Amino acid sequence: MRGRLARRLIGSTMTGATYGAAALAILPLAAIFAMLLVKGAGSIDLNFFIRSAVPVGEPGGGFAHAIVGTLIIVGMACVIGVPIGVATGIFLAEFGGGRFGFGVRFVADVLNGVPSIVIGIFAWTWLVKPMGHFSALAGGFALGIILVPIVARTTEEMVRLVPNSLREAALALGYQRWRATLQVVVRSAAAGIVTGCLVAVARVAGETAPLLFTALGNQFFSTRLQGPMAALPLQIYVYASGPYDEWHRQAWAGALVLIVLVLALSLIARAVVRAKRQHA
Amino acid sequence: MTTPPATPPVQTPVPPADAAPTTLPRLATEGLTAWYGGASGVRDVTLACRENTITALIGPSGCGKSTLLRSLNRMHELVPGARVTGRVLLDGYDIYDQAINPVQVRRRIGMVFQRPTPFPTMTIAQNVAAGLAVGERLARSDRDGVIEHALRRAALWDEVKDRLHESPLNLSGGQQQRLCVARTVAPEPEVLLLDEPTASLDPAGTAHIEELVQELKREFTVVIVTHNLQQAARVSDVTAFFYLGELIEVGPTSRMFTAPLKAQTEAYITGRFG
Question: What is the pLDDT of residues B185-202, one digit of tens each?
Fold first, then answer.
């Protein structure tokens, strides 16, 4: 009888401990979000989204140039990074058994660990310096390089998850290797690949260091790819380290918008997976 | 009278002149050995399957029957390090000849696997038509007709005709397996290879598939691997018994199950081992 009680007690304690650990893990995110809401929500108005920076002291300034800039730069990063990353991931999953595959995987893992500021300097050396000026293009390029190994590894994981029996069934129907890979295997892994891309994009959208030497930032609204462009993280950095209260308030608001963007991308990623699962 | 196959163009030696066309087996092997690296899974098999017959391959686990089956449509060579020596003749033409594209072979010899494998991102109709995608292009109306015909042959049409555009994952295991059969017969292969097709099904599903196989015999030549001796006895015309990679005995099913010639065959069939 006593043994049973002790067992139940230990069981409950352990279960409680795991719940506690989970709560502890959620705590930082909840705390950050709460802090940003408290400090930044008050400064968010329509102007924030449709007006660009104004001279200090003038009311009604906003982050429109930074928000649009982030969208453009991240968009370019996707165009560069996603196709290369997905193709590499498919290659690694389907044909990556040998030495070459091992090498590619190793390089991708190392690239994942390279500090993003180093990648920014790399983009500066190869794009900014030869071109002679800072540009959104270089910023997109730098972020694209960061995207490639993340997308490649998640794509590989997702494609590997597709059971071999599906691959065999396609080949037994007389599908060529490429067709079996693309039309059956990758198509089955598509939801997972999209999720991986969205999560990678969410991560890359918040990178500041690579943009310091490439896109540089811009006080004015610009959509010119060959010129410097504002971006949310850059603008937050400039405003947060500035001396004006007005700037500080806008920086808080910018940080809130950035985290909402990241959250939205992650939620969309989950919705995509759920939709595919219901449809399939 | 068998007519030569329309595709693919073949430059292999033609069947011997003295073989009368009517007695040429649809599918035959000569000295077939399937290797996994340096070890052989099945050795020196010479077997002939006549048109419109069902040949059952039986034997205990690991005897090489699935390896042999996969050598018949060049699926065996997809395993890294695997290769095949000997000949496999489809209507007298060696499918392992250098000039032949294995992809073309697999379009003429279809295979149904042990576990149902409907393509999850395609609808039921798209699954059935999946094999058609690699053949000649068909008009939309023709395609719908082929899908219906294949589903009827698989005895699945009545159960799915109202949900052709739904996901196949909502079907039962037996229905999914019949869908795989429909998918395999839609492109009109000449030979059907069934690798333990009822192993993962309940008795009702098994009965459906066995009935189906008897129907399919009228249009195709069928080779079925089965662990279930009673199924082999129920369904097949010819039975081949394998043990440890060797073909021990082959003969008409009725004789194999009542008066086998080899002691090993009798021991297996009577359940003394296996």
Answer: 999 899 999 999 988 888
pLDDT recorded at residue A142: 94
Q: What pLDDT is attached to residue B18? A: 47
SS3 label, residue B219 = coil
In 3D space, the residue among A216, A226, A189, A203 whose CA is nearest the CA of residue A149 turns out to be: A203
Q: What residues in B contact A169, CB-CB < 8 Å? A: 113, 117, 119, 180
End-to-end Cα spacing for chain A: 50
Neighbours of B155 (CB within 10 A): 18
Q: From residue B138, how far is each of A176, B10, B131, B161, B179 by CA, in Å? A: 19, 25, 12, 21, 20
Beta-sheet strand order (sheet of B109-112): B93-94, B82-90, B27-36, B39-49, B246-252, B238-243, B54-58, B221-225, B191-195, B109-112
Q: How far is CA A197 from CA A11, A115, A216, A232, B72, in A?
A: 39, 20, 25, 20, 41
Cβ separation of A188 and B121 shorter than 8 Å? Answer: yes
Residues in chain B closer than 8 A to A165 (CB atoms): 113, 115, 117
Gap between the Cα atoms of B91 and A131, Å rounded: 67
Residue B56, sorted as left (phi over 0), alpha (psi -120 to 50) or beta, turns out to be: beta
Q: Could you tell me the two tokens for B31? A: 């000295």
Based on its alpha-carbon atoms, the radius of gyration of chain A, rounded to whole angstroms, reads 23
Residue A60 confidence (pLDDT) above 70? yes
Asked if the ipTM is above 0.90, the reply is no
* pTM confidence score: 0.81
pLDDT in tens, B143-180: 889 999 999 988 899 999 899 999 999 999 889 999 99
Where are the domains positioned within chain B?
Answer: 25-269
Cα dihedral B2→B3→B8→B9 (10° resolution) = 120
The fold of the B25-269 domain, in CATH, is Rossmann fold (3.40.50)
Specify the pLDDT at position A277.
62
Candidates A166, A168, A173, A194, partner chain B, best to mutate (most B CBs within 10 A): A173
Probe site for chain A from B111, B121, B195 (most A CB atoms < 10 A): B121
Structure tokens at A263: 């959250």
